[in-house]
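quick one, 364 residues, struct below
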Amino acid sequence: MGRINGKIVFTPYTLPGEDVLVRIVREKKDYAHALPREIIKPSARRRQPECSLFGVCGGCDFQHTDYDEQKTIKQQMVRETFKRIGRLDLAEIIFEESAPFGCRSRVQLHRLAHGPSGEPCAPWGFKKAASAECVPVGRCPAAVPEINDFLAEPAGADFRAGDRVRVFGCGGRAAFRKDDEVRLALCGKNIVFSPECFFQSNIPLLEKLIREAFTNLSGDRALDAYGGVGTFAVFLEERFRSVVSIEENSAASSCARRNLNPDTTRVFAGSMEDWIAAGADGLCGAAKPDVVVVDPPRAGLSGAVRAFLKKLGCPLILYISCDIGSLARDSAFLLESGYSLDEYRLFDFYPQTAHVESLCRFTR
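---
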């Protein structure tokens, strides 16, 4: 972020303290977006990108700097967003590091027929930065070996140009067809899911998040909102006498039923809003849960879910988030509703990018 005549200008692929010649690509009343044309005075933290497609492929934002600087930038992003949106000052951010490269287990690829000028190219590609077009990719340094093995193989006749394919790599193989099954050992638990289902892409850090979130937890009842394929509920059901898992994606809720113990855990196939409207199992009465785990999509908690959590008054909320802005908004609401934010832990699930995963512990 820089300034031209006092106006804020957001410019990717630059670093604090640099002098940069930029080209304005989109201008608003109070701010503008630009692209760098020339780095006149580079930062000492600037590095040669690992990938030759950096700046063209839209997958990475930070390969132009070292990992320590990425950590600093991300913590500043979190603090500034919480201050701007939530009017909150974070006392401490615990940063959980990732391997800088070779850690991404899940990607979305696009089948290519030919290169931009008609020449033969790699069969798969990623979206270009700020574009609907694709760039051919033969190898991705951010990805695990299984995905790079997939990229190196011929695409096969069952994929047509323009097809979008979700690929998950682990255990020596890549799963990519809708009827494929991923079988993953996660902190000693076996999880089964389809590559079409959402699943976190950095498995070592996911295991660390699970240990940090659920160690020493126990009680009678737990609620797993936005439960997915049961990733968190499998650890809740061994610590609580009963668990309710809510998941609106039908493929994910079907996998959750396979992964979870029906004697302990009930899976509700529907949205949190549907479940609340259906009566929420009477949880606002004597059957109040000991812990609620929320892991919502980027939009965060809807107004209905926030109102439900305030009325519920659960003693502990574990909030897992992939979006700093919606997390800051929801954190401010929870603090106004009588909760305190006891811990903010940042997990660098996506090194080389501006994205972060957060774990917040709210108590009342």
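The helical segments are 67-86, 145-152, 203-214, 233-236, 250-259, 272-277, 303-312, 324-336.
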